[in-house]
Amino acid sequence: MDRETAALLERAGTLRRAGKVDEAMAAYQALLRREPELPDSWYNLGWLQRQARQYEASLQSYGEALKRGVRDPEEVHLNRAVILSDHLARHEEAETELQAALKLRPDYLAALLNLGNLHEDRGNRKSAEAAYRRALEVAPDDALALSRLAGVLVPGSERSGELIDRLRSAVLQQRDPSARADLGFALGRLLDGEENYGEAFSAYEAANRASAESFGPSYRGYDRAAHKYFVDRLIAAFPSPAKQSEAATPSIFILGMFRSGSTLLEQILAGHSRVVSGGELDLIPELVSRIDGYPEAVATADEATIERWRDFYQEGSAPFARDGAFVTDKRPENFLHIGLIKMLFPGAKIVHTRRNRLDNLLSLHFLHLGPEMPYALDLADAAHWHAQYERLMAHWKRLYPNDILDVDYDSLVHEPEPIIHRMLDFLGLDREDRLLDFHRRSGAVKTASVWQVREPLHARSSGRWRNYEPQLSRLLGSDSDD
């Protein structure tokens, strides 16, 4: 390698390690134009392009790395699979990449776990179970493989019952808090299926404590005052309705509290000939993260800036688009950003999913969530978040009374037809048959409710809080009278 090429390589690596994504990409591109036979540099460029959301370019760069004999090619196939599955909705191609990784290295644990997860997304319970069991053959003590295996078994079944003692033992032996949390949430789910509600609640509480511990010593938990202040700022930043424009609305926005029935609603709508399921798109949160001074800065944005933001959203949703159809964007926490959504797309129709408050709080508390949702770790914190959500939604509905439709989860599962008809009318969609056959449809569903939406409509989760009334009374006081 000549001196100039070596200097370019050093500069590209320095920029990458410094987190300067755009500059590092430009440096690697300059390097590879000069010397294309550098597989590790193609790999690094692919990694950077993925961070920059340039997914097609990232796939191409990873492909160049493979052509040139990159080290650990199975890792490259895994990275390609994640892009194809998580960002481009090309799930068959993702499976092909994972199988290629496993052909190179049959004991590749990460590929087995991802393959199991992909089978879950696509509703293939037996295939997912087989992948996780194979993962446990490779790594018998792997907490994630064991907890995911527990997650695909039907609660209350004979096989799930056999796994409870194994999970109990693994939780006691596990020192890593993140792994202990994975195991604890899985144990709670199976105990709930056995109707052992007291022990299930204790398992969930311990799992949430382990989850908080796993976030590290700098983790400070949910800041009630800070979140209330943020909601105050949102209300102040959007005091009046957005002005009308000619911008086309590409999406149906489904939002509300996490675990409030949005996945069920999306799957029902996805049976319509003019609706495509987009899932939990990260486009609005990502856009918010790019707006310096949000939310106040939105009010002073000029039309060119708003158009640039609009283009970002439309380009990001394009992989899901189909002529003449709406794409559902069911990111629940988009309720925080209705003001921005309506500025970008004044004609946007918003479906707001609601659920019994206590059922909603329990469902949050019983799921292993990351540090970006710290309120879920503590039921009292979750109740505070819920109160702020209700306050903010009341503000949005005052601004847009005709553009936000409330859909109650309990009403939907008990008497779906009138709810669905009202929703279709609200969205301007013709009534079509077989929308309730969502459990028979193929296609991937990326959500914590992946197995619930593979079943016919049922009301088992409605009123679930009554199973835990003693614990709720202790932690939330009179709130359990709801």
Structure in words:
There is one protein chain. With 482 residues, the protein is mainly alpha-helical. It contains 23 helices and five strands. The protein has a five-stranded parallel sheet, with helices on both faces. Helix 6 runs antiparallel to helix 7, helix 9 runs antiparallel to helix 10 and helix 13 runs parallel beside helix 20. The radius of gyration is 24 Å and the shape is globular.
The shape, in one word, is globular
For the biggest β-sheet, the strand order reads 2-3-1-4-5
Helix and strand run: HHHHHHHHHHHHHEHEHHHEHEHHEHHH
Low-confidence stretches: none
Give the class-level CATH name of the domain at 230-353 and 369-476. Alpha Beta
Number of strands: 5
Per CATH, which architecture of the domain at 230-353 and 369-476?
A: 3-Layer(aba) Sandwich
Give the name of the CATH superfamily of the domain at 230-353 and 369-476: P-loop containing nucleotide triphosphate hydrolases
Mean pLDDT: 91
Coarse structural class: mainly alpha
Under CATH, the topology of the domain at 230-353 and 369-476 can be stated as Rossmann fold
Strand coverage percent = under 5%
Radius of gyration: 24 Å
CA distance, first residue to last residue: 72 Å
Largest sheet: 5 strands, parallel
The number of helical runs is 23
Helical proportion?
55-70%
Task: Give the tags.
single chain, 482 residues, mainly alpha, Rossmann fold, five-stranded parallel sheet, 23 helices
